[in-house]
Specification:
The complex is a heterodimer. Chain A is of the alpha+beta class. Chain A is built from five helices and eight strands. The termini of chain B are far apart. Classes of the chains: A alpha+beta, B alpha+beta.
Chain lengths: 155, 281
C-alpha cells in the first residue's frame, strides 16, 4: 500500500542507539543497517507529515548547524534504498552526493548522511563452514547448508 | 523418531552446556570417551529426561563380504544429518552440528563467530568468516602471551562480558581444509576461565604482503560487523542487539587488511594500551 507524499520511517524495525548512530535491524529482510548521525536524525524526523525542507529546518535547530534541504533529500534517498521508509507515493528526489557536499561546504559542520547495510547471516554461514566444492558428509558442514551427491558442498 | 527409539542403544550421554540440554546415544559400546572429546568445552552431565536435541549415532559393523562398505549414520532428532563409511567424518559432523546448535539455542548467551583472546584483563575479538585467518592470528597472539578464549565463538552474556569457549584450536597446516587440533596448553598458552569485558574488536582480512594499517570504526559500524557474525541474529535479533550494545562500552574498533599474523599481532595487543592499533615507537 502506497503512503502519503512525505517520507515516513518504518516502525516495525528493531533499533539500538550507539552514541548518535543508530543500528536498525529489519526483521522482514534480515538486514542490519548502521545510520550515521545525520541519517539517524533525519530518519527519526520522517513521520509522514514533514517535507524535506521542514526536516532540514528542524535538523538545523537540533544540530546547531545549517542543514541544507539537499542533505535531507540525500538522507531520504539512502534510507529509501535501504528500505527503511514506508513506500511513498512520491519517489524520493534524486540528489547526488556532490550536490549535497556543495551545500554543506568542504568543511561542513555535519557529516553526509550514510547508511551502511549488512545481511544477517544464517547460522550455517555465521559459523565455521566449508565452501562450495569442498568434501563433506553432512549439510551442516557446508556454508550453503547443502552437501550434494558426490560428497561436495554445493548450492 | 519412534523407529529410531526402537533400535538398540548401547550407551548414551546427556550434556548441559551454555544453558542447552543435548543428548547423544550410540549403537555400539565403548565410544563415550571419544564422543566426550567432541562436546562443547565446559559441558556438564545432564540428567534431564527429555533433551532439546538428541543425536543418534548408528555405528556400522564391519562387513564380512568383500567390496561392501557399511555406512555410519548420524541423526539429529529424527533427521538424518550424516552418512559415511568413515566414522571420523561422521563424528566431525556431530561436533559441528552440536556446537552450532548450542550457539543457536543458548537462552542466555549470544554467540559471535570470532577468535577471542584475553589481554590485560580484557577481551580482544577477531570476528570473521571461515578461512579469514582467525586461528592463525589467535595462535600468534597466544605466542605473544595472550590468554586463549576461543578460535570459534565469542560468548556474550547479559552484562556484556565475554566468556571462554576454549575448544582446541583447529590449525590448518597447509592452507587446506584439513585441521589438526591443538589445545592452548600444547601451544604453551593458558586458557581463560573468567568472563572478561570487551577491550577491542579487530576486523581484518588477510592479504599476502599487506601492511597492517587499521582504520578506526565507529561504534555503530562495529556493532553492525558484530551483528553480521552473530549465529542467532535471525532468530533472536532483539536479544542479540541488546547484548552487543552491552558488550561495546569503552571498546576500541578497528578494521584493516593484514599481512602475516606475526606482523600485526603485536600492534593488535597494543590497541588496549594506545587505542589506535599502531605500534609504539
Amino acid at each position: 500500500m502506497k503512503e502519503g507524499k512525505y517520507p515516513r520511517a518504518r516502525m516495525d524495525c528493531l533499533t539500538r542507539e550507539f552514541g548518535d548512530e543508530v543500528l536498525v535491524y529489519d526483521r522482514e529482510r534480515n538486514v542490519g543497517h548502521c545510520l550515521n548521525a545525520t541519517a539517524a536524525a533525519a530518519w527519526k524526523l520522517c513521520d509522514g507529515k514533514k517535507s524535506a525542507s521542514e526536516v532540514a529546518k528542524i535538523l538545523t535547530r537540533q544540530l546547531s548547524a545549517p542543514v541544507d534541504e539537499s542533505v535531507v533529500q540525500l538522507a531520504i534517498e539512502e534510507l529509501s534504498q535501504a528500505r527503511l521508509l514506508v513506500e511513498s507515493e512520491k519517489p524520493a528526489r534524486r540528489t547526488s552526493r556532490r550536490e549535497a557536499i556543495r551545500a554543506i561546504g568542504i568543511a561542513g559542520a555535519i557529516a553526509l548522511p550514510l547508511v551502511t547495510s549488512l545481511v544477517a547471516p544464517t547460522p550455517a554461514r555465521a559459523a565455521s563452514c566449508l565452501a562450495n566444492g569442498k568434501p563433506c558428509v553432512s549439510n551442516v558442514q557446508c556454508c550453503s547448508g547443502k552437501c550434494g551427491t558426490g560428497g561436495r558442498c554445493n548450492g | 523418531m519412534r523407529k529410531l527409539d526402537r533400535l538398540g542403544w548401547a550407551e548414551g550421554i546427556g550434556v548441559y552446556t551454555y544453558g542447552v540440554h543435548a543428548g547423544v546415544r550410540i549403537s555400539t559400546p565403548g565410544m563415550l570417551l571419544q564422543i566426550s572429546r567432541l562436546l562443547p568445552p565446559g559441558w556438564k552431565n545432564s540428567r534431564r529426561a527429555t533433551m532439546q536435541r538428541l543425536y543418534s549415532l548408528v555405528v556400522a559393523e564391519s562387513s564380512r563380504r568383500a567390496g561392501v562398505r557399511r555406512m555410519h549414520i548420524l541423526y539429529a532428532d529424527s533427521e538424518r544429518i550424516a552418512r559415511d563409511p568413515e566414522l571420523d567424518q561422521v563424528l566431525t559432523a556431530l561436533e559441528t552440528d552440536l556446537h552450532r546448535y548450542v550457539a543457536e539455542a543458548s537462552p542466555d548467551k549470544t554467540f559471535l563467530h570470532a577468535g577471542v583472546v584475553g589481554w590485560q584483563g580484557r577481551a580482544i575479538l577477531l570476528p570473521g568468516r571461515s578461512l579469514s585467518g582467525k586461528t592463525t592470528l589467535v595462535r600468534e597472539l597466544l605466542r605473544l602471551g595472550a590468554t586463549y578464549y576461543s578460535d570459534e565463538f565469542a560468548v556474550v552474556d547479559d552484562s556484556g562480558k565475554v566468556h571462554p569457549f576454549p575448544r582446541p584450536l583447529g590449525i590448518r597446516e597447509d592452507s587446506t581444509y584439513a585441521q589438526t587440533n591443538y589445545t592452548a596448553e600444547k601451544l604453551g598458552a593458558a586458557s581463560g576461565v573468567k568472563p572478561l569485558p570487551l577491550g577491542a574488536v579487530v576486523i581484518c582480512k588477510y592479504k599476502a604482503g599487506a601492511r597492517w594499517k587499521p582504520a578506526p570504526l565507529s561504534h555503530g559500524q562495529g556493532a553492525l560487523e558484530l551483528m553480521a557474525n552473530s549465529i542467532a541474529v535471525r532468530n533472536e535479533p532483539r536479544q542479540t542487539l541488546r547484548r552487543i550494545h552491552k558488550l561495546m562500552r569503552s571498546a576500541v574498533f578497528v578494521k584493516g587488511t593484514r599481512g602475516e599474523a606475526c606482523d600485526s599481532a603485536a600492534s593488535i595487543l597494543n590497541l588496549l594500551s594506545t587505542g589506535n592499533g599502531q605500534e609504539k615507537e
